[in-house]
Write a structure and sequence with these properties.
Structural class: mainly alpha
CATH architecture: Up-down Bundle
Number of strands: 0
Largest sheet: none
Helix content: 55-70%
Strand content: under 5%
Number of helices: 6
CATH class: Mainly Alpha
CATH topology: Four Helix Bundle (Hemerythrin (Met), subunit A)
């Protein structure tokens, strides 16, 4: 039983570390733009994100008893889902540029491929699932505060982007698209 708990904790640590590195990948390569105009919003996203990312290995490795073994299997599922959603989003985006909170790139058209045929903001969905995973594995006040704050920030960012895109040259097409997909979760009805 002891070996199984350590093995599950180790697997969770590796998968979540891969998710964190993937999210860092988005900042460095996917949404890279040195001329970003909205630096305040980007900074507001990065500070709590970095705090959560760096608190994860510190709590995991150096704070005894910080792992909730009862919710660890669910946290592992969430972390794995975050990884899958993130990389499927990267794959779906490969032929497009976006006008998003992380970037001021002009839109090259509306992406409706793959995961974008189900949700409008799959990158944000991946981040949110990953942050919830960390909270599930290590529920404490710091992780609760940071996770809640980041979820609120990503919801706000999604609404800002929605209004920004609706006012762009693809606004009418985007409005029709939003009637067929959910913001973060697929719309089935």
């Amino acid at each position: 039983m002891f070996f199984e708990k350590n093995m599950l904790s180790g697997i969770y640590f590796i998968v979540t570390l891969c998710a964190i590195l993937s999210f860092l990948h988005s900042s460095l390569f996917v949404f890279k733009n040195p001329n970003h105009k909205n630096k305040t919003t980007k900074l507001f996203l990065k500070i709590p994100t970095l705090l959560l990312w760096f608190s994860f290995p510190i709590h995991f490795l150096f704070v005894p008893g910080s792992i909730n073994l009862q919710s660890l299997p669910l946290a592992l599922v969430f972390s794995s889902m975050a990884l899958m959603v993130y990389w499927f989003s990267v794959y779906s985006k490969r032929n497009y540029t976006f006008s998003v909170i992380h970037s001021d790139l002009d839109s090259s058209g509306l992406c409706r491929d793959n995961i974008y045929s189900l949700v409008a903001h799959p990158f944000y969905l991946a981040y949110i699932i990953g942050y919830v995973s960390i909270f599930l594995a290590m529920p404490n006040l710091i992780h609760f505060f940071l996770t809640t704050l980041l979820i609120a920030v990503y919801f706000r960012a999604a609404y800002q982007e929605k209004h920004q895109i609706l006012q762009s040259s693809i606004g009418a097409e985007y409005k029709a698209y939003l009637k067929t997909v959910g913001m973060f979760f697929p719309r089935f009805f």
